[in-house]
Every structure is written in C-alpha cells, then in structure tokens.
Amino acid sequence: MVRQRLRLTLHIIGSFLKYFALAYIVPLVTALYYGEKWYIYLYALLLTLGIGLILEFRFKTENVIERADGFTIVAFTWLFIPLLGILPYVFLGLGFLDAFFESMSGFTTTGATILNAVEDLPRSALLWRSLTQWLGGMGVIALFIAILPRLGVGGSQLFDREFPGPLPERLRPRFTSTARILWAIYVAFTAVEIALLRLLTTLPLFDSICISFSTLSTGGFTPTTASIGSYGDPLAEYIIMAFMFLAGISFIIHYRVLQRNWRAIKDDEFRLYLIILAVAISLLILSQGFNSYREGIFQALSIMTTTGFVTAGFGSWHSGARIVLLALMFIGACGGSTGGGIKVVRVLTLIKHTGVMMKRAISPKAVIPVKYNRKPLPEGIIRDIISFLFLYILVAVVASVALCFLGLNLETAISAVAATLGNVGPGLGGVGPGLNYAWLPGAAKAILIMCMWLGRLELFTVFMIFSPRFWKG
Predict the structure, then answer these.
(1) Which residues does 270 contact at the CB level (< 8 Å), separation at least 6?
(2) Residue 154 scores a pLDDT above 60
(3) d(C-alpha 71, C-alpha 462), whole Å
(4) How does DSSP classify residue 26?
C-alpha cells in the first residue's frame, strides 16, 4: 500500500514538474530582453524538466488517484515545486535555506522576504518572485488540473486538497471545468489591473505586471524594498485596494456575479467580510486620525486579504491599531479566495454555532440548526471547523513558543507565526513593515517555512501525511 501510494505520488509529481519547468521561460525571455544572466533560467528549466521526466517514467503506474493519494500528492507537490523554485535564487548567490524561504514564501503567497534590498536582484528574478506568487495564488495543482484532462476523476481528490475550505463548491460538474473557469477569471482580473496601473498611474509596465501578479494572488512581493509606499501614487494605491478587495472574495461569487446572478452578493460570508473590513478601517482611522484614512483603508485591506503590501510603517502605530491588524492576520479572507488565514466563513460558522448553543442552553429539547445562506449546515462541517480552529491555534502557540526560545521577543514571535501561517507576509516587531526575516536564526526560518506550508494547505493535508494510521490504511 505504502509503496504503491509513493509510486503514484512521485509519478504524478513528475508529470507536474515537467510542465512547471515551462514557467522558467518567462524569466528567461525577460533576462534576454534586459541583457541579464539568462542561462541560469535555462539551467533551472532543464534541471526541473529532467527531474520531472525521471520521476514520471521511473515510477510510471496505471493506478487511479484515490482519496488518500490526494493528500500525499498535494502535500509533496507543494514541497517539490518550492524546492525547485529556489534554483534562480541559488544561482544568484543565496544560501539554500534563504532561497527555500523566499521560494516557499512566493508559492504560498506569503510575501515574507529575507532580502535586505529587493532592488539588488535583476529584473528577471524580480519577475520570477512575482510569478511564483501568481502561480501559487489560484493554485499550481488547479492549473495542472485545468490543462491536464488525463487526471480525470482523480483531479477531484487533488482539487479538494488544494482548496480545502469548509464549504467546497463546484461551478461545473467536472473539476477540470471548474479549474478552467477559476483560472480564466483570475487571468482576466490580472490583465485588467495591469492595464489600469500602466495607463492611469505613474507605474512603469514592468512594475505594473509584478504588482498585479502579487495583488490577485494576495502575495505581496513588489519590485521595491519599500513596497507600494515607494511609488507615492495615490491613484495606484486605490486601484490596488480595489483588486485586493476583489481577491479576498470567493471566486465563486465573482463567477456568479459575472453570470448576472446578483443574489450572490447576499452571501452570508461576503456580508461579514464587509462588516469586518468596515469595523477594522474605522478603528484604524480612529486610532491614527482622519488624515491617515488612506493608509488605514489600505493596510486593513492588505492585511485582511493577506496580501501584505505596505504603504505606512504600521509597526509604530498605536497599540490598539496593531492589535486590530494582528486580529485581521488570523481572520484572513473569504473561503474560495486566494487569501489565507482562518477564513471568514469559519469565523461566521463559529459565531452562528455559538448563538445556537446559547439558544439550546435555554431550550435543551429544541432542534435549532446552524444555517449558512438560509440552509442548514451538516454537523460534520461544523465539527471540521472546530477541529481546524483548535489545530490552527495549537500550531500558532507551539510555533510562537519555539520562536521565543530561539530568542525572539513575544510580539515578534506571535506576529511572525500569524504572518506566515496566515500567508500574510509582514508582521510586527522585528518582522514589521520596513524590516524582513533575514536576521532570524536558521531554526526560526525553518519553523516559519513549515508554517507557510501548513497555512497554504490549511493544516489537515500536511498533518495527514505524518499520521502512521494514514500510511497503514
């Protein structure tokens, strides 16, 4: 059983890597255009392609992807791709751990960086950083499902593991169709943002592309060390705010609105998303003063959608404002979006469940279901959400304690874990805006890499592969 599962996993991952290697064509062409070291991307392409072909044919199998296989394929794919994504960074002189941190941060759309001066990278590498986030935003496996119909029925097992939200929905009966629709909307939004930034603002085309890749993926990498604040263009900030807001909404809602199904905007999760943003923005403006309204709106959107762009040094803001931002790091965006965190839908379900439990305390015999969009939620989903929240908090506490023992102060440790587990990017304290993760000890970086991996796959997919019972089954 174990041997067959590993064989199938390595075979599928090899097939994925074979196609992933083509992504290096983008920075390769960019390097040729700007007269940079193009051969490093050629080496990366050939090495990735070679490893992919070896895995695909060495472990060739006709076995069908089953439910348990989905856990191993997705978990290990999200390790293999960031591991091979380090090649340009290594060729440019970064050490393995730093390169792996940067690559994992990119593909998981975290946006945390170990680079002291982003501008020191060649343009081709800057584009590669943003491209990794764009590919990771909607999901590399979802892309493979969209372009590889040979995955067949097994694609559903992979799709469920890469998009492990509590309320799974399809737009079409086939998962390949769903993946294609989601990617089509994603590409369209990206193209529109690039056009608006280039035509209406002072941003150059190259920067517009990089920033758009990082906005729709809620990633946060930019071609400048000082993030969006370095451009000083209010109109660019408003455009980016609009697309961060859209990226934080479930793409299923986008699809339904595009189909003129206006009832989609009455979704319970979407309404709570608006309420939380409105309250957070109000509190930030109240604490910082009305003159800072643009910074307050921008940072609330950036942190809640887990994008991580920065226009202000919020690390020195009022302690109340910092607590608000820390809370947003944990809450995160909507389910079905490219954002991270616990997700608004889980918060909403827990709020509704608490209300029902209070009613049952008064009327023990009453049958009162927890409803989402006026439909009762199965008890199994509610149990899954409670288990997820417990596990999320447990991981956050354990990782924070470990970082404190490695020498980080409490604020830095907690916010670093919140920022990486929630795939946000910048935290508070020693990893706040204007700072980075380069100074952390190697063990701390390894812990945060694990947090990024766990956060992107929402815990269960990764923890399953460490369960002895999973392999025995």
Answers:
(1) 249, 250, 253, 264, 334
(2) no
(3) 7
(4) H
List the one residue out of 246, 258, 184 whose CA is nearest residue 216: 246
Q: 375 has which bridge partners?
A: 372
User: Phi, psi at residue 376, to the nearest 5°?
Assistant: -65, 140
User: 67-76, 154-163, 325-334: which has the minimum mean pLDDT?
Assistant: 154-163
For 66, residues 6+ apart whose C-beta sits below 8 A from its C-beta are 154, 157
For 372, phi then psi, to 5°, come to -130, 120
Local confidence band at 21 (pLDDT 50, 70, 90 cut-offs): very high
Name the one residue in this structure whose structure tokens are 């081709």: 124
Length of the chain counted residue by residue: 473
Torsion sign over Cα 274, 279, 284, 286: positive
Cα 174 versus chain centre, distance: 24
**168 pLDDT more than 80:** no
Residue with tokens 């204007």: 434
Q: Coil, helix or strand for 308?
A: coil
Mean pLDDT in residue range 30-47: 96
* pLDDT, average across residues 462-470: 82
Handedness of CA 248, 252, 258, 262 (dihedral sign): negative
Q: Is 159 exposed, middle or buried (0-12, 13-18, 19+ CB in 10 A)?
A: buried
Domain borders along the chain are 379-472
CA dihedral angle for residue 456, residue 457, residue 460, residue 461, rounded to 10 degrees? -150
Rounded distance, CA 366 to CA 361, Å?
9
Consecutive H or E run containing 371 = strand 371-372
Q: Would you state the pLDDT for residue 173?
A: 47
Nearest of 167, 134, 165 to residue 373 by alpha carbon: 167
**Local structure of 172: helix, strand or coil:** coil
156, pLDDT greater than 60: no
CB-count burial class (<10 Å; 0-12, 13-18, 19+) for 322: buried
Instruction: Count Cβ atoms below 10 Å from residue 39 Cβ, excluding itself.
Output: 12
Residue 463 buriedness (CB in 10 A; 0-12 / 13-18 / 19+): middle
